[in-house]
User: Fold these one by one.
Assistant:
Number 1:
Amino acid sequence: MSDLSSLRTPSQRIAWSTTIIVSTLVFIFLIAPILAIMPLSFSSGSYLTYPLPGLSLRWYDDFINSPRWMNALKNSLIIGVASTALSMVLGTLAALGLAQWKSRFKPLVLAFVLSPVVVPGVITAVGLYFFFAPIGLTGSYLGLVLAHTALATPFVVITVGATLQSFDTNLARAAASLGASPLYAFRRVILPLILPGLASGALFAFATSFDEVVIVLFMAGPEQRTLPREMFSGIRENISPTITAAAVILTTVSVILLATLEALRRRNERLKGG
Amino acid sequence: MTAPSATSANASIEMPLKRQLKRVERARQFKALGLILPLLVFLLFTFAGPIAGMLWRSVEDRDVRQVLPHTIAALAGWDGKNLPDEEAFAALVSDIQAARAAGTLAVAAKRLNYALNGFRTILTSTGRNLKGAPERGTAKETLTRINPAWRERATWTAIRDAGGPVTSFYLLAALDLVRNADGAIVSAPPDQAIYRNVFARTFLISLSVTVLCLILGFPVAYLLATLPPARSNLLMIFVLLPFWTSLLVRTCAWIVLLQSKGVVNDSLHWLGIIDEPLRLIYNRFGVCVAMTHVLLPFMILPLYSSMKAISPAYMRAAASLGAPPVTAFLRIYLPQTLPGIGAGSLLVFILALGYYITPALVGGAADQMISYFIALYTTETANWGLASALGAVLLLATVLLALVYGKLVQGQQVTGGMKN
């Protein structure tokens, strides 16, 4: 350990070992619950206990053959994709605008745009429930997509905004001086360079919608129940192994999203030459 | 942009150029604003408007006014010291009869029952027993005969105070305060006062979770910031994977682990540490463990970025000047992490304040936080005024803390401290 050899005094070594031991315990605390739930979904028994009586895929079979769960999966995907698309359009435009806008109101506008992340979910949900009910937007896909878009857009603004910050505006000027129209310059010069930022923004937006449950609890009718919503009622009633199968599916989606983000980050660092 | 000094020779050329530049710049700014505008309009409709609507509902009071309009009008000049005059009684009789015919009496009864327990019965029984219009001048007699409550001053002040169109009733109720018959603000009777308790509990749980996150997160952030990037990037997965895993999955996992036949109890039993399963979930312990698990990454990430910015040279300098490691840590390192500690703690605390899902699933009846009551009054009992008032108090606390947070992270990268 290069880190240990550079430590001279015994007390420094003790401090460093303590840091490592405590951190290891915290890492176990963070990861163990997620790992512990996975094998249970492959159990052949119907109790959520170890040791497993045997291995089987019956709970995945249960999940796939259940109209309730498949409908929830479908809803999660529809609402997730739709709100991602909408928040990408609104968020990217706003990030482009914010990058150029010079005004003393800018911090205020930025705070407003980011506020859906900070305001407690229940407050947003209650407000939307009162607001959308009279105009028939509760119990509808459109209402949920609009609400999820509001929650997801701040992440798009942050991510795309961060990419634009490192973007060299001289490149756009160079394109203009070479005769490119603004739209052409955007499509051929700016877009390819900020594409990784856009992609991470989309992933954040999708993850936000895919994991959201409080607003769905208030606003979704029986037709619009999403995966987290089904899990919520499942956990409330009685945790069956089918829920653990759903959990594994959700976790797999998270891992894919995380891995894609990491790949984008690495690509970005490589391009920067860092 | 600095303009060259204007001499008389080139002034005539420069002025139009300057103006032209200004015009181009102004057009650019308009275009920028035009790009932001769609999102602002969208958020007005899907976020700011709904929240403003909720805030309005916390002070709006129109139900009684709509159902008993003549009574409210007749009570407008009432001094509140004695019983109202015959005119008010007559107005009430006609209002009740009209409301009964229209089927709206229950709306007023529900609102008045919040103000005075038992008002629902008073109003419905009166409505049931009113037969035809009483003779002129006998309304008071008729009403007090049907229900002696109409002889009480409090019954009438309740109607007057619920007359709207705005009221402080719900906001006061959210803080366990009521107006007494003389209009003074006093504490609610102990059997009805629960919200101060709920707020204190919400605050306490959030604080415990924040402290737990800080204790657990600090060494991890330190380790990640100190290790060479190749290794810390690998370990970062342990922080990011739970961060990205669905809240429901994590909550579900804790139930599986901590239930009475769960992994933890089984292991402890197998090790011979316990005979009977411990109660680890559906109580405060379970809530704190699960919430700490959910919020820990929000502590580690800001701590990590503040520690990453501390140059190791400072610690070496301290050591070379003869500072013992503990002194160097306390006097040199720790103060530099304070912005990170502040940002992480505030972020975790703000997020914890508004938590709903985790306590709802792993907490007992005595562990429900303020969000639970807001949800309860919205969807179950439909006491929207009270739900909105509790929401307003929670929102105020969140906004104040968020302002402090904003000041704290100002100058640092503007990411909102979120998933970045």
Number 2:
Amino acid sequence: MPMLYLTEQGAVLGREGDRLVVRKGEEVLLSVPAFKVEGVWVFGGVQLTTPAIGLLLAQGIEVCFFTVEGRLKGRLTPILSRNALLRLRQFERYTNEGFRREIAARIVAAKLENARRLLLRYARAYPGPGWEKPLQAMERRIAQVQEAPDLETLRGIEGSGTAAYFEAFREMVRGELRFEGRHRRPPRDPVNAMLSLGYALLTGEMIGKIAACGLDPYIGFYHEVRHGRPALALDLVEEFRHAVVDRLVLSLVNRRAFRAEDFEEREEDGAVLLRPEALRRYLTAYEAFMRRSPGEGASSWRERLDEQVRRMARAVWSGSLYTPFRMEA
Amino acid sequence: MPYCVVAYDIPDDRRRLRLSRVLWGMLDRVQKSVFEGELEEHQLDRLEERIRRVVEAREDAIRIYPLCPACRRRIRRIGPSPLRADPDVWVI
């Protein structure tokens, strides 16, 4: 079913009968039966009327609120009554150091492996000596993962492996937009802005899926539990960052679908953001990507995400091992 | 997803209004008393159930035509009533 992304600042999502209606001033921008909508993602200053909220809750439609730059602010959820037992298990597993380390090691290994495979694809397409060093660095890190005695060490390995990857990512960006290195909070160039936004969308999506299956998205195994941090969602996002968002961004940038004039710098903090029209195009491209098949079985990337959440739920429930997503080589 | 066309003829004003509300909740209005839209089989069942609750079988006439994809492509239309497919995403 279609997703509804609301980016038009000042628009109002209301309800008419069983329909969701988006208006701006007098103009009706969209009118659609609510049951057709899979989820609603709201960006920045878009209003929801109380009747609309009632309809969304009644239909079990997931609503996520993002800032204009794509930071997840919160979600609207129907009353959560599901699966208290699963959550108790999750708390139990969280206190089990061995379980946490094992899950974390598998996630980090898969994440770095996916990054390596993406890099390898570029190395094959554009042969050159520049790829050797980062590839070797990443292989070393991947090999170290299994020996890591604790989470702290794992985080160090992941950090330096990812740094090596982003070093090479500069060469993978081949369009006219420059990428000097990974910056977050705030992103300081267009490519970073697109990466950050993509990761945020993916995280928002994960939070919803995790909550829907009855797990607590805020209690993770690899990521530390911190106030307001969706640790489990971030755990599950790791294996998809490079396979989904980086590939999406690379394809958009490298075929010059986005240009410098699609971005603007915010005065307060120098954050580079997508302009409204570019944001819409980016969301459309993201959605199209998520609906594409990742190959081997799953009909879409989104379904692949679901599968990983189910695997995590099984691992939490039975204490069995979790198998992360691995990109095809 | 099958594409459905619903046409009706209802003499009573109140019932006609009620029915159009029910249809409008699940389909798009393409003509004064014709609605269309994509519906799964089970959604179609739900729609039929709702319609039955509103109408008076002795006086009212309602027809639901589910179209197969091939038939849908062969719809001929004259005049400004759009033929719409649900997109993957609405970005507003």
